[in-house]
Design a protein that fits this description.
The chain is mainly α and 292 residues long. It contains eleven helices and five strands. It has a three-stranded mixed β-sheet, with helices on both faces. The structure holds zinc ion (ZN). The site of zinc ion has 6 residues, from helix 5 and helix 8.
Length: 292
């Protein structure tokens, strides 16, 4: 049985055929809309512990990166206006130095990634959050580091994890699923003579981008790739365990999960997965340490 990257439908054979016809039409529409169809592919190389799941990619990286760059520029400008952008030069320098050490190692998973227009900013806010938008646009909220008293190793684990979402293009995949679903509905309406036709695809893509909530599969992939990046950059991957312990502790003491966990579902078996990956990534960490 081959692995499918298409959205799941629990449907009868007839319905499946109907959906697959619609999907073909949707594909044709996307092509005619000039959306640069990529179809089923894997965004990353295998690495040591990486992922090779096939992904549904209906929108080009370039389109999504343009949208991400715009959203990021707005976020940065808003933070600056509010006097919250990189207010602590020592902290900003610390986070940027960790990113700079990790960035070259992204080549293990994607040759193009070290050449991305990477950007790292720290926003002075109590939010316990961090993210990396498509194309390498990183934000750390100071609250995450200060309130959880994160070590450099723990910051590196968060950084590696967030960068891995971008390397695997999980947002692009989510946008693709949203487009596939919406276009399918609209094609159906068009067939029934209800008008409509091609949807406002750019709008769909934007909404899916800003409201990104990652799936369990995405999280697991980001943990795997992220831990390898952390180790290759010479940061101790065992910090992944203490990081998630701190996250869970913050979650129970606040009475509500940190912002980071609202977009990153917490699971206790996450720590188990990290523990199970340590034998594979510790030698990478030790080799990096020997190289200095
Ligand atoms: Zn994540």
């Amino acid at each position: 049985m081959t692995e499918s990257c298409l959205p799941n439908f629990s449907a009868t054979g007839e319905e499946r055929q109907f959906f697959s016809t619609l999907r073909l039409l949707a594909t044709a529409l996307l092509v005619s809309a000039g959306l640069g169809l990529t179809g089923c592919a894997s965004t990353t190389e295998r690495g040591t512990v990486g992922a090779d799941r096939k992904q549904l990619l209906l929108i080009s990286s370039e389109q999504l990166e343009q949208m991400a760059a715009k959203s990021y520029a707005k976020l940065r400008a808003d933070a600056f206006r509010q006097g919250k952008l990189n207010t602590d030069p020592v902290l900003t320098q610390r986070v940027r130095a960790i990113a700079a050490r990790i960035e070259p190692h992204t080549a293990v998973f994607r040759r193009d990634a070290p050449g991305w227009k990477w950007e790292v900013n720290v926003i002075n806010s109590n939010e316990l959050n961090a993210f990396c938008m498509p194309g390498g646009k990183i934000v750390f909220y100071a609250g995450l580091i200060r309130q959880l008293n994160l070590s450099d190793n723990e910051i590196a684990v968060v950084m590696g994890h967030e960068i891995s979402h971008a390397l695997r293009e999980h947002s692009r995949e989510q946008v693709s699923r949203a487009i596939a679903a919406q276009t399918t509905i609209d094609v159906g309406a068009a067939l029934l003579g209800l008008g409509g036709g091609a949807a406002d695809l750019a709008n769909t893509a934007y909404e899916a981008l800003v409201a990104t909530k990652f799936s369990r599969v995405d999280e697991s992939e980001a943990d795997r790739l992220g831990l390898e990046l952390t180790a290759r950059a010479g940061y101790d991957p065992r910090a992944g365990i203490t990081l998630w312990q701190k996250m869970m502790k913050a979650s129970s003491s606040r009475g509500s999960p940190p912002e980071f966990l609202s977009t990153h579902p917490a699971e206790t078996n996450r720590i188990q997965q990290i523990e199970s990956l340590l034998p594979a990534v510790m030698p990478l960490y030790e080799a990096a340490r020997r190289r200095g």
